[in-house]
Amino acid sequence: MSSNDPAVAVVVPVRNEAGNVAPLIAEITAALAGHEPFEIVYVNDGSSDGTDAELKRLMALNPHLRRVRHRQSCGQSAAVRSGVLAARAPVIVTIDGDGQNDPAFIPALLRVLRDGAPAVGIVAGQRLARKGAFKRIQSRIANAVRGAVLRDGTRDTGCGLKAFRRDVYLRLPYFDALHRFMPALVKREGLAIGYVDVVDRTRGSGVSNYGLWDRLWVGILDLAGVWWLIRRRKRIPDIVED
């Protein structure tokens, strides 16, 4: 890696978040400025509002910003994957594009990841005092069920703030909703999970693109699939090249 290459890529999946793009980019830039070379990779997941136009406008003003576009919406996990594949940095940070994740916690995530290397494969943000009573209830239910089945030790796997090594991510099996099961699958690879408590914020503008009931039954099937993958992992290879 040359001195001009980014050390960290912040991947931001978005769909119809035009009003949140500029404020979040400014916060990410402020959080990482002076730390290490970085890039911001926005993945526009088939937006039908002004998100793409706003990203084009801001790319002319921010040298760190890159844009990847899906012609049609493919979901959050697909958008994260497209961003990771496009990233040039060996370390990835993901953050939700609605402004509810605070970029000020990114340096703490990176510090825990690097202090724990190479044993730590992912650092997961754990939200404190989630905004909205309904979101708190659905989050508790989903995390309690997932934790009981997968035993991954993660109380809030749905938090968008995560830091991980790009090579670790690329070893994981890909499927829709992968982003919600990453700690369990990283643990399956024989790596540890780090945690950072983060503060949940109210959405900047717009409305949520993801609900509970439209993914409930699919989520149950995904949970069963991940449980099967974990059970089928019998031994972690100890690879030696002579």
Q: What is the secondary structure topology, with strand pairs?
A:
Blueprint: E1 8-14, H1 18-32, E2 38-45, H2 51-59, E3 65-70, H3 76-86, E4 91-94, H4 106-115, E5 120-128, H5 133-150, E6 162-165, H6 166-171, H7 182-188, E7 192-199, H8 216-232
Parallel strand pairs: 1-2, 1-4, 2-3, 5-7
Antiparallel strand pairs: 4-6, 5-6
The CATH class label is Alpha Beta
Helical percent range? 25-40%
- Average pLDDT number: 87
Approximate strand percentage: 15-25%
Number of domains: 1
Please report the total strand number as a whole number: 7
Strand order of the largest sheet: 3-2-1-4-6-5-7
- Given the helix and strand composition, which structural class is it? alpha/beta
Write the H/E string, N to C: EHEHEHEHEHEHHEH
Distance between termini? 25 Å
- Roughly how many Å is the radius of gyration? 17 Å
CATH architecture: Alpha-Beta Complex
Largest sheet: 7 strands, mixed
The coarse overall form would be globular
- Write down the CATH topology: Spore Coat Polysaccharide Biosynthesis Protein SpsA, Chain A
The CATH homologous superfamily is named Spore Coat Polysaccharide Biosynthesis Protein SpsA, Chain A
What does this structure look like?
The protein is built from eight helices and seven strands; from the N terminus they run βαβαβαβαβαβααβα. Strands 3-2-1-4-6-5-7 form a seven-stranded mixed sheet, with helices on both faces. Helix 1 packs parallel to helix 2. Helix content is 38%, strand content 19%. It has one domain (8-232): Spore Coat Polysaccharide Biosynthesis Protein SpsA, Chain A (Alpha-Beta Complex), CATH 3.90.550.10. The mean pLDDT is 87. With 242 residues, the protein is α/β, with parallel strands linked by helices.
